[in-house]
Amino acid sequence: MHSIIKTSFAAIVAAGITATSAQADAHALSGDLVIFSDMSNPAPRAVMEGMVERFGEMHPELNIELTVIDREAYKTQIRNFLTADAPDVANWYAANRMLPYVEAGLFEDVSDMWEGQMSEELASTKGAMTIDGKQYGVPYTYYQWGVYYRKDLMEQFGLSEPTTWEEEKANCQTYLDNGIKCYTIGTKFLWTAGGWFDYLNMRTNGYDYHAALTAGQEKWDSEKTRATFANWRELIDMGAFIDNHQTYSWQEAMPFMVNGEAASYLMGNFSVAAFREGGLDDSKLDFYQFPEITAGIPKGEDAPTDTFHIPSGAKNKENAKAFLEFVVSADNQTLINNGENLGQLPVNALSSVDDDKFLNEGFAMLSNDAPGGIAQFFDRDAPAEMAAVAMEGFQEFMLFPDNLDDILARLDAAAVDIYAE
Amino acid sequence: MFPNPIEKQSRGVQISYQALLPVVLIAWLLPLLAVMLFSIKPESDFVSGNYWGLPDTLEGFKNYGKVFFESDMPKYLWNSVRITVPTVIGCMILSSMTGFALGVYKFRANLWIFFMFVAGNFVPFQILMVPVRDLTVDLDMYNTVRGLVLFHVAFQTGFCTLFMRNFIRALPFELIEAARVEGIAEWRIFWYVVLPLMKPALAALAVLIFTFIWNDYFWAIVLTQGSETQPVTAGITSFNAQFRAAYHLMSAGSIVAALPPVAMFFLMQKHFIAGLTLGAVK
Question: Disulfide engineering: A311 pairs with which of A86, B17, B113, B196, CB 3.0-4.6 Å?
């Protein structure tokens, strides 16, 4: 017993010495670090706890306190704790979702961290972390969107992955002629229609126009936006989407594709796990980038990014910055995003991706084939109220395309109030 | 007497009654049957759209196994116990005393105090959400089992007092007078005379409050968060992942969560029905 106490005491002393000596190199940290996280589902939670453990091993003197809050509850509580009793590090989302907190001065400007190397390694999401030329947080994971399709059906009809709008429509016509719907979708909760609008608008008018539109700098009733809806209407008039999609959630729309009644699904990469559960292995399920519509426009992609921020009210900002640097390091991002953990994509370009067909294709696409820019998804890019009104409009358009004039007028009217604030 | 017993009705009415009864019964139980069916289905059934058909494979053991061994369900169940049992005990203690005071002693404000307890029952509890939440935050009891128990005790005591007071009123007052003549201290009268007579009421009330608190969802999500403190009713939603809802596990979890109150009902059926009518008759 004595010897155990002695050894552990010696270990503590030794750790203390190494810590102090290392502190001279400004590496080892001491004091407190309070982290609030919304990574509450089992796998993300394990990732978060793992990161804290590894960071704690690097800095034995540091007293880290991690609080994991249910992901949905977190969304309402963040307003509360950022103003009342701020932690040192908090989870949140990129782009417009962080704008209210940045404008209220609740997130710390971390532009100094982004100088130099980090901007290169995290180039793909720098835009999403930037507001008025300053960065307000760091990303830790994202995932791609794209068209997931039944490879076996495509082969059966002798088709190939489309790269242009004409090919996309031609493929679709073949499916329809054989009694198969081209796309499954469930618009009950609206956001799936937002995904379609994102892609159609980014391909028709380009990323910059799309970003300006969601930021309230462009009118909805314009020739450009109308062109987007005209392209959408071509598919609707063909009958490309499954019937009664307004009654399904995204999950409830999956059986159509699993049972071969629909050929593809414009969706995020999180759908792959569910498809595999439903028996679609890699010989039956594949992925392609949403095809080009207007020739020559640089392709933009949706890749919702989850982030870490330092609240302005944080008490241990130096420790918090060190943690953020640890989070974005290539090694850490490789580890936390692999198939056993988050199963998503690392943001750091120097990270490696797990051996998974969809993760590899997505990583290559976002790193190399998205020169237009990375969008965060409609309901993260547009302000919450605008997103709600607009996505309702998208759903209505998919069911009653003739109402377009009405819908656009309504969106412009709503935009006047929403962006004026 | 109205309604007329079925046996005394015409043959036609009897037949249609007998034919309709099973139909209505099944329609009534359909949601519950669906949950039971879902709880033994594999996840792939939901991805492939086989909602109502026979399960592709029987995964009952796997689903319930996951609920018990790979999720936070046991923790949530234990939280429910930690919340429900102290609340029941606290309510019993407080309301037997308030009921005794209001039922036995005649003092000027008696009726008004009693009305206040009763009036508390008529406040729709949803409107208390924000003030109670702020109060628990200020008292540093937000997200603690303690905070939830205290609130439940405070809120349920109103109903329990009504119940107990009326029950004590119905006891023969001569017993208490006889004890007083013997010169027995008031607290001993409470302890040795009244309390033993209240046993049926206590049992009925305990069963009733147990079910109320066990099934509470509203206050559980308002005052607590996370697996350290939330009861099982709120914990079921934790099977909703960030992107997907695990219907099969949620169903299995719901069945598990519903078992204790159901078991309680069957074990204490006599008291339960007594409890529903006891407060009403004076």
Answer: A86
List residues bridging with A31 in a β-sheet: A62
Contacts of B224 in chain A (CB under 8 A): none
**A20 or B203: whose pLDDT is higher?**
B203
CB within 8 Å: A41 and B226: no
Measured distance CA(A294)–CA(A280) in Å, rounded: 33
Picking from A277, A280, A306, A341 by the largest number of B CB atoms within 10 A of its own CB, the best residue to mutate is A277
Same domain as A159, residue A79: no
Choose the CATH number for B71-278 among 1.10.443.10, 2.120.10.90, 1.10.3720.10, 1.10.10.1590: 1.10.3720.10
The beta-carbon neighbor of B47 closest among A42, A77, A254 is A254
Which residues on A lie below 8 Å from B48 (Cβ)?
255, 258-259, 278-279
Complex ipTM value: 0.71
Best CA proximity match to A303, nearest among A374, A247, A250: A374
The reply to whether A181 and A295 lie within a common domain is yes
Q: Choose among B44, B226, B244: nearest Cβ to A251.
A: B244
CB contact under 8 A, B49 and A41: no
Task: Give the minimum alpha-carbon distance from B143 to chain A in angstroms, rounded to a whole number.
Answer: 11
pLDDT score, position A10: 43
Residues A61/A15, Cβ–Cβ less than 8 Å: yes
- Residue numbers in A near B238 (CB within 8 A): 40, 70
pLDDT tens digits for range A116-137: 888 888 988 888 899 999 999 9
pLDDT at A325 over 70: yes
pLDDT at A84: 77
For residue A9, the model assigns a pLDDT of 44
Inter-chain touch B47–A258, beta carbons under 8 Å: yes
Spatial CB neighbours of A389, under 8 Å, sequence gap ≥ 6: A410, A411, A414, A418
Return the H-helix or E-strand segment holding B97: helix B73-104
Q: What was the pLDDT predicted at B277?
A: 64
Is the four-CA dihedral B218, B223, B225, B228 of positive or negative sign? negative
User: How do strand A31-37 and strand A89-93 relate by DSSP bridges?
Assistant: parallel
A41 to B241: CB separation less than 8 angstroms, yes or no: yes
d(CA A265, CA A253) in angstroms, rounded, equals 9
Residue in B closest to A43 by C-alpha: B241
